[in-house]
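Progress narrative, work stream C.
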Amino acid sequence: MNDKTKLDELTGAFKLQVDSIRESVQDVFSKDKSDDQEAADTAVKKEHVVLVHGLFLHGTATKVMSNWLEKAGYSTSEFSYRSVFEDLDNNAKRLKEYFESLDADVVHAVGHSLGGVLIQHMYDIYDVHKKGRVVALGSPFLGSKVAAYFRQHPLTSAVLGKSIAAVNESQERRWNSHHELGIIAGIKSAGIGNILTRVLKGPNDGTVAVAETRLPGYKEHITVPVSHTQLIFSQRVSEKVINFLKNGSFEDCD
């Protein structure tokens, strides 16, 4: 298989993923706010959740999860960044500045895939003074075999861009912040990693292996039977995220 064929397959696979996300987001916007959501809007006004998307995507990709969080009473916003054309350092600087601009007593962060790595990088190089917890969804903290496979080829490496390059550069990454970190990994092996490569070993979500998500220093780590993309659309995952933001545990403590 030549580089052009690999590039075409990779581009096509991600186009299907983005189209699927767009349809799901449109479904959310087609519904009016429920009475429960409107009542909850006043419940946690001073607790805000920043959602950070993954590679190739935009903040709107996290709108489905935002909807569930808002029903639980949180205010939310989506942080969009240039995952291809900016490196991890510059994106972390922008994320830190965004955190500081928010008028909230508590600011939580939820990151999908590369978004979780970006959040970890921000906490690693900056002092974040606002209280809050962090949840990472399918984030390849300890390297990505799928990304490493595609970075062997010049064309597909260029498509992946600058931010993902840092994922495989550091094998010493760990969670050093006092903010509590919870990690959710998918174990439904359906995604571009298994469609276009055979490099994933052990339980995985089709793009990221469970072993790649186990960042030393986390408070809790769980697996759920969803794929990589489904992590940001699953109601069950959103409920687990809400539990952790409220209680520091994925289990419902109420």
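Work stream C, second folded protein:
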Amino acid sequence: MEYVRLGNSDIQVSRFCLGCMSFGDPASKMHAWTLNTDESEKIIRHALDLGINFFDTANGYSAQPPEEGEDILVVYFSNTGNTERIAQIIADETGGTLWEIVPETPYTAADLNYSDSDCRANREQNDPDARPAIADEVENFEEYDRVFIGHPIWWGDAPRIIQTFLESYPFADKRVYTFSTSGSSSGNGAYNGLREGYPEINFAGNLHFTSSRLSSAQTRVADRLSEILSAEAA
């Protein structure tokens, strides 16, 4: 193993550095792939046996409790389970509170039969004033600074019930990130529609998943969250 001087110090470190991003306490919800102490120790001991003495543990800072006022709420509306899956990953990665938008009147299979032009979903999407009622309320909404809102794409837009949610709470001083799912269509139209419809809300970006990209959801969510944290720290 070759060693070099660390900066202007007299410390000699190995040319190879072991990144410890996945080491820590899984119960902390730092990352879904976090290794526990026993598994981490095996890797570290092997690295030491190889002569590596340079370890990057910077990601450990993210395991610290959030600063006051930085609590995260992960809200989602889902019918097939795809949006719920993404919401769960985000909640696991961030340690945020997970909250499901449940319609006061649940949607039936007939309600979602898009081939029927008169089905409930089509009637709502064709009516810009439709606001389906939500069964429950978020407790202590004012305590959350960052809100993730997830939904499926219905005819290129967010379901009207998402507008019900947006109009039910004060979003001043909150940063809102959306995520959406669809069979194959884009999520750009829905995201832009929400931004244009609610210019007073600070929408900070959308992450969209088609059915073919759900298999990479864990990695894409982690990458997106990393981008968000970098942007917020800038």
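The CA atoms of residues 217 and 223 lie 10 Å apart. No further action is required on this item.
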